[in-house]
Amino acid sequence: MQLGALVGWINYQLSSANHSISDINALGDGVTIVKLVEALLFESPPNVISPISTSKDKLDNLSSAINLFNSKTGADIGVSPLILTGNLKALMDLAWDIIYHSSIKTIYYGGFPDRFALLKWAQDNTAHLNIPLINDFVTSFKSGMAFCALISSIHPGLVYLDDLQEYKVMDNLRLAFKLANEVFKVPKLIEPADMLSDPDEITIIIYLSLCYQKFV
């Protein structure tokens, strides 16, 4: 579930550059990371090598892009050679670090930073509605009611919570993700079935960060 969300978030950012990836290994190709940083910062890394012919070229481009990203965001992301070998953990760590420092660390709401701000935002915007209290990023969102409640709070009349039933999980999730995408242009990073089988905190945080950007 988390891997799909990471790739989906990257592709959402890369859409402005008419570039996309099919799997996370592309972060090590020496091209994708440059385009991703350009899309996020609206600035090109220096000394980009093109065309790429060696592993050293890939590593040099990766280092140039990450160094620029670090300097602009205050991050301290390291460049591991394991990224070039397709090491899944190294690739996923890199993707999450970029997401966190570009889209989550910058959120501040109700006196709280980053993920705590997202939770506070979700709580404040649903506390007046007839759903269970949101306490976390996994169990509170698993039924789909919390997602629907957020949409109802931001756009009253779009979802009628009294017509929904908490046990109809798939219906609730399909409705929430469909409306978020069609009305607010939030990309579909999560499949409803994923929430039944393997709900993941990081994935939900990433998705909610995009909702926050579109809803607020």
UniProtKB/TrEMBL annotation:
Name of the protein in question: Calponin-homology (CH) domain-containing protein
Domain Calponin-homology (CH) positions: 1-103, 112-216
Transmembrane segment boundaries: none
Superkingdom of the organism of origin: Eukaryota
InterPro entries: CH_dom, CH_dom_sf, F-actin_Monoox_Mical
Organism the protein comes from: Arcella intermedia
